[in-house]
Amino acid sequence: MRFELGLLLLFLTLLVFEIFTNKKQKGNVISFAILLFTIHTAIGFIPLADGDLFGGMFKTNTLLFYFKNVLNVGVLIVLLQSADWLKEKIVEQNKATEFILLLLSSLLGMYFMISAGDFLMFYLGLELATLPVAALVAYETSKRISAEAGVKYILSSALASGTALFGISFLYATAGSLYFDVIATTLTVSNLSILGFILFFSGLAFKISLAPFHFWTADVYEGAPINVASYLSVISKGAAVVILVILLFTVLKPLLPFWSKIIYIVAIATMTIGNLFALRQQNMKRFLAFSSVAQAGFILLGMLSVDELGLTTVLFFVTVYIFSNLGAFGVVQAISEVSGKENIDDYEGLYRTNPKLSLLLMLALFSLAGIPPLAGFFGKFFLYAAAASKGYYVLVFIGVVNATISLYYYLLVIRAMFLRKNQDAIPYFNSKLFMKLGLILAAIGILVAGMYSPLYEYVYTISTNFLN
Amino acid sequence: MNYSYVIAIPLIPLALFLLLGLFSKKIPPSISGWIGSLGLGTSFALSLYTAYHYYIEAKVNGIYQTFVYKQTWLAFSDKLHIDMGVLIDPISVMMLIVVTTISFMVHLYSRGYMKGDDGYTRFFAYLALFSFSMLGLVLATNLFQIYIFWELVGASSFLLIGYYYTKPSAVAAAKKAFIVTRFADLGFLIGILVVSYYSGTFDFSELNNPEGFMISNWASTSFMGLSVFTWGLLLIFMGGAGKSAMLPFHIWLPDAMEGPTPVSALIHAATMVVAGVYLVARLFPAFYFVEDGFALTIVAYVGAISSLFAAIIALTQNDIKRVLAFSTMSQIGYMMLALGVSKYDGHEGLGFMASMFHLFTHAMFKALLFLAAGSVIHAIHSNYLKDMGGLRKYMPVTHITFLIAALSISGVPGFAGFFSKDEILAAAYEHDMLIYISSVAVAGLTALYMFRLYFGIFWGKDTQYEHIPHESPWSMTLPMLFLAVMSVVGGYIHFSEFVSADHIPFEAHLNYSLAAIASGVGILGIIIAYILYKKETNLPDKISNTFGVTYKWAYHKFYFDEIYLFVTKRIIFGLVAAPMAWFDKYVVDATMVSIGNMTVSFSNKIKGLQSGKFQDYAMAFISGGVILAIVIFYLWL
Question: Is the pTM here over 0.80, yes or no?
Fold first, then answer.
């Protein structure tokens, strides 16, 4: 509970601080918030004992601590990357602190969602995680596209939540309880429970943007402020993946023969559709949106192996993915802030003018594409290995083909930056301190996750403990 | 003797890359070339030192020992861990010499060739990165490490081929090379997965161990009539065929000639393209013993067919670098087929030795051919034979060195190529008659196209040049002279004393009758080229007219590119991606467009939001769930 209490305390402190700060100094609140959140993140690394609360509605264990820490670091990077944008554009409108507060409350929702011990808590967490984001998506009120995206997001998520809730009620009807521990033992295979699962899965698939539940992704990413798109694509998606894998491996295990087929179909659809759409994108945000759809498809591969290996690979891949995507979004944001340019063509000749940014973007994209020895390669490799260990060779083959196709579009961006000359390339600029820190953290994350093997061993250990 | 210092050989170029890459704006071009050359020179000297000690001291009871220095890099579980390290054995030491020699020479040469280019320092940084990756590949101790460096080699050659990024064709070529080889690597990766999953190890020494699990138990598993290990090895070979431009993955090599010529000399003559040969040689015992060498037979035939195929195409090309590119493909086919027909112990392993021998000599003379071609291109600013002729008067050093290299590749007695080619032909003769006949034909074709090039450039018509061509500066001719010496004396090395499949030296003798046939065919080729191309006549045109369709096919490289293009453009882009794009444009994008229109009036916007395209999304969402339910309930139950 320390994570949740700490975050709540932080939240209230900021709220009070905001009220008693005069208008001229609002900019400092942002720095203060980042400082507090850094401390919160650091505290998260102090080990905690497992336990549960509210009669088992809320559970914690090492695996969840690990993932909450990953979420914290991710949110910290998002905050760092948004700090300058907030200070320059949003403080004038006097709603910068709200942005941080909304972000943190959504994070709080995610904590509750992944720590849930029953479906009710899960649902509350899911809603708390989703609703503030809808406000964030529509944050640039001066832009119609942003407002449009906000509306689209809230409608889609309402539909998804409704469907999920409907599914949960079916599961309740067959299992007779909302508690995960009870459901795991009483859930029986029947048409009702399978239908319940499908509905529930559709709701969650919306959050992870799996095909065909992904249509909102590109529009919302394009309309939302970049840091919010980044938050959606890494933090929100990451948390949803983790709760999905936990539920599949424990509570919903009795339905394994059925859900593995669903995962199988959806994995193929998601990888392929995400890739084919990404091929033709010109806008970097839309491009990253479809790339993140495709990546989500890869993650499903790991879920087919219901054992330590599967859980480890999913967690490891999500960690790697979070850092790689944050790196990519960070660069897009840094460039967009200075020049307002967001198209792949605009990046032509970037290496000549801004070598460091180009190198970081290359690192992030190569990691997403899975080029060794970067982290993304190992992530994908283990996902293939996990699926192959259960005999899904055809699926692995489709995955590898898809990974090769994806290389093509990642390479398009890299080609634009490194191998194209442009008279009016984006001129050299120096990012501000916070942005720099955010980018450096992401870069370190990509490198460490790939090169530092104890991380994988650690994830393996906690996964083993979790499943036993 | 401790060889752990060998790790410095790849690390020096890495340090160079970091230095030149990160400070590219601060280091003036005048010294960056020197820094690069000096660093590679050190690696070269260290490699020579290693080779000297290894080949003299590392024999125990007449067998060359293998030294492995490694460290666990990523321990993913008790069983699955990836090591990084260096593996010292006869072939890796030989490859060290090849890579550092050529790389050093190319560095020296590039100081002259690239002079005045505005990315001078960047170029040397890329060269250093490539050298590092290639050396790491050569020294790899396990499949995983070799794969990592394999990809690094691909990525750095992508940068080098696309170096002239103002040229769209160069950029396209870089992309093509990367994607085609990556596609082949897809097989490589699956192969690694298969082999390591069933054998439980990545290590070369374990995989190649005749008592190891893979070799002694290959019969225990089977998939579609073949051992799983055979499939694994074939998939690994697919990766090798991609990098080594074997059929059907060769299409990237001719286009890659868009890169700067020194790059072609380094990557496309001597180092990266032979990585596939090296990979098969590295796993040779596994290839040989598993399923009694079934995979090896495939290697032999792929090599033989590629070799003949490329030699025919080379005859018809007019861009001198493309002729050399196809020639490289053809010679690598030679090396592959030699490995393919080889057996394991003693003199039976002649093919293995011959392959490595040819790899060595070919690296020298083919790099020289590229450098000389670069010198010609540097002087007259054209790649095409039609713009050349009579250059011997203006460029004496280039002329002589090119001639030496051409004689060497044609297998004229006394030159390096003669010795290594003879061993290959002898090995083919002993084990597979069909392959032998095709190889002899290739030997004749090689001499023919090579001397077509030679006469066309240095003799032939007296072209009137706008600027009188002049000999290249010393920085360029000196490396050429060095390689010219190597193209002769390289052949007199008693290779079988050093390199053999089972690490036991043996005696290899020239087979005089076979050598006579081969060099006779070669000289015949030269004579034909002399008649056809020494003076400008209309004879060649007549001949190509007689061959008509065949000539046209060969000129168009048997339409391989067109076939690939048809498959990718028409089928993948046209039939799959285009409808998808249409859908995105008219369904998904239309939402955005309609939003734009909605801003015209507020009422329209409200209307748009409610009746708008969100319905489509909701529709997709619901039907997605329904389809899943239908699939599960009605189709799968």
Answer: no
